[in-house]
Specification:
The protein is an alpha/beta fold. It has twelve helices and twelve strands. It is globular and about 65 Å long. It binds NADP nicotinamide-adenine-dinucleotide phosphate. Belongs to the aldo/keto reductase family.
């Protein structure tokens, strides 16, 4: 069975997997990638003012031929006058409303949480966004919003993976109590940022049982937590791999608990950040060793 939609606290539906245009596509033309995603079954696009590629997302929406009502569009407010920035985003996207409008970072509204959220509520009432929510909010940030809110945020989009599951425990509990759905980005960290870590073991075991890939198991874990998966890829075959998660049998309770437990094991990030690239230390050491061998052999020649 393909992914089914989740119901937000305002009654609107949200597809449980989204194709994102940040991270790898940040400040890049996202048109080809978004069109490829739409043509291969994605019906939820996640973008943002600060990704500086909403125009290319709009071009992909037009060129794909997918009708507006068949695609769920999220964009995020990153600073400036809220209403004006949303109107600019709508123009760039070529739409009259977004399905979900998020405060991208608490810092974007820290000068006036109450007034900013009131503006978001007006945007929802005026039909420019069907649902409104937040991103990267802690429990304290959510409480600040809720002090004066008439509308509870529909979602909180956060970095969420087995390695930070435990540190988010109180946030996840609070969100569940308030009916705020978690959207998870960066979930593939066990593969992309921390390969070789303790989570790999239970993920590989579940993958073997299900005949699935490790990425599919990690997304199945996110799905089991009731969160929306926000991911991306440049590769067509991975789109199918990601969407295939909707067809897999669910993880067992034991598998979920084994992944949770492995995420708790202290694990040092064995990567070094070089000019924005996370390079595994082993690769870096191999390159240094290689350069050292070349340099010393050249010295011997002179
Ligand atoms: N709200 C926020 O502050 C915030 C922050 C960050 C991201 N986001 C949103 O979340 C979206 C996804 O973020 P993310 O990139 O962190 O998501 P992710 O799902 O953790 O990672 C996606 C990346 O994993 C790579 N990948 C997939 N399978 C792989 C494998 N088997 N081996 C190696 N690499 C693999 C893909 O690369 P290939 O292209 O090679 O397939 C892709 O670039 C963003 O585009 C953005 O929309 C939001």
């Amino acid at each position: 069975m393909p992914f089914s939609d989740l119901t937000l606290n305002d009654g609107h539906k949200i597809p449980q997997i989204a194709f994102g245009t940040g991270s790898a596509l940040y400040e890049k033309d996202a048109a080809d990638a978004v069109e490829q995603a739409l043509n291969n079954g994605f019906d939820h696009i996640d973008t943002a003012q600060v990704y500086h590629n909403e125009e290319s997302v709009g071009a992909a929406l037009r060129d794909s031929g997918v009708s507006r009502s068949e695609v769920f569009i999220t964009t995020k407010y990153g600073g400036g006058n809220i209403r004006e920035e949303l109107e600019k985003s709508l123009t760039k996207l070529g739409v009259t409303y977004v399905d979900l409008y998020l405060i991208h970072f608490p810092a974007s509204v820290e000068k006036d949480f109450a007034g900013s959220w009131e503006e978001f509520e007006k945007i929802k009432k005026d039909g420019l966004a069907k649902s409104i929510g937040v991103s990267n909010f802690t429990v304290d940030h959510l409480k600040k919003i809720l002090e004066t809110a008439n509308i509870v945020p529909a979602v909180n989009q956060i970095r969420y993976n087995p390695y930070n599951h435990a540190e988010h425990a109180s946030l996840l509990r609070f969100a569940a109590e308030k009916g705020i759905i978690i959207e998870a980005y960066g979930s593939l960290a066990p593969i992309t940022k921390k390969p070789g870590g303790p989570v790999d073991v239970p993920v590989a075991q579940a993958a073997a049982r299900l005949g699935a890939t490790p990425a599919q198991v990690i997304f199945s874990w996110v799905k089991a937590k009731g969160a929306v998966i926000v991911t991306t890829t440049s590769k067509k075959e991975r789109l199918q791999e990601y969407l295939g998660v909707g067809d897999l049998p669910p993880l067992t309770q034991e598998e979920i608990e084994a992944i949770d437990a492995a995420g708790l094991v202290p694990w040092h990030n064995k990567t070094v950040n070089l000019c924005g690239l996370d390079v595994p230390r082993s690769v870096l050491l191999t390159v240094i060793l290689f350069l050292f061998v070349i340099a010393s052999s050249r010295l011997r020649c002179y």
